[in-house]
Write a structure and sequence with these properties.
The chain has 421 residues and is α/β, with parallel strands linked by helices. It is 31% helix and 27% strand. The protein binds ligand EPZ. The site of ligand EPZ has 26 residues, from helix 1, helix 5, helix 6 and helix 12.
Length: 421
Amino acid sequence: MDSLLITGGNRLKGSITVNGSKNAALPIMAACILTEGETVLKGVPQLEDIRHLSALLEKLGVNVSRDEKGNLRLKVEDEMNCHAEYELVRKMRASVCVMGPLLAKRRRAQVSLPGGCNIGDRPVDLHIQGFQCLGAESDLVGGDIYLKAKKLKGAEMFLGGPFGSTVLGTANVLMAATLAEGVTVIESAACEPEVIDLANYLNACGARIIGQGTPRITVEGVKELHGCEHTVIPDRIEAGTFMMAAAITNGDVLINNCRLDHLMAVVDRLRAIGVNVERKGDAVQVSSSRRLEPVSVTTQPYPGFPTDLQAQIMALLALADGNSIITEKIFPDRFVHVAELNRMGARLRKEGPTVIVEGVKNLVGAPVMASDLRASAALVVAALVAKGKTKISRVYHIDRGYERIEQRLAAIGAEIQRVPE
Ligand code: EPZ
């Protein structure tokens, strides 16, 4: 297992390019199960999570390959296997997004129920509820969810839960509804840009979906879907992470391939902290040259502040000039980074789903451990400015969501290297 060795203190300067979105690419890849013909996906990042889903899709009879231009090509070759095994689902929870496509296209699915993970409980009850509304039967046996339906029928449904809408739940039901008979209306649908990208991909394949990006999505079922060519949206979470990295180092970084309209809640908080954020066409310039102001941050479903940037903004606010309050409203236990940041000299106190951040003057390098993707990203952000050396072990967590992070940050001035353990 590799580690990252980071010596803090360098101002980040120059330009960095955001990759295609992991969380948009994953459900779109699963959606290929629904289609006849080939899908060509542009901008799919080279990440562990993408490799895990590719391996699962291969087992489900989808041929997945990268062409010479780096595009991902997917084509269904065999529709016999409908079983997503524990070994693969365990490695990546997003594997559950094969449920909807398998059910709609092959009329049955057996998908291992994912366990909890380091960010807390991850139920799929809303996904199942949506499938049941479409007429599917479901059963849980030996840790596997069995779904079957002679045919799916369009229905009106409410898909909100105790923590609001569900991103992959909306994606799953949306995918299933594309081939259902009649019209489906999903109320309290997730509005995240990744859901819009999925709907746009499906429409390009012949689906009839309207309302994506709003809490009411309407799907008119069609008989079949064909392949298409699609470019995945830029990764707003990677872009936001680079913004935090630029801000914490008092840097001046041009972030290319960045959709500012997907990041307005983040920009709002960064500006309140005193960070300069300026749109430059398809790029965004982020700079900072003074002590940071403390602020309150509450994570919420889109367009609110994303839970996937909560850890990174906590690292930033650890150095603010006063006390900040961060409240997690999506995954109330998503705080594995708190103890690790405290090892680096931060003063963070967790009280239920809230962390009180008492700003300190400096962070200090220390050996720390990555235990979740975004928590690891927060440790990298903190290490970029911490005095001395930080060794972040278990880097495979960060490789799940950020491609060659050390090379890309080194290119804008960070002192960072990967060391095998
Ligand atoms: C997606 O997970 C993302 N993953 C997560 O990113 C992200 O943190 C999350 O959305 C929230 O934005 C992918 O897109 C692959 P949810 P998802 O269903 O869809 C509760 C990262 O770091 N809930 O929107 O699984 C759930 O417990 C990852 O890249 C139910 O109660 O999240 C949570 O409290 C981590 N029942 C809330 O809803 C359900 O059936 C939102 O979860 C489903 C969810």
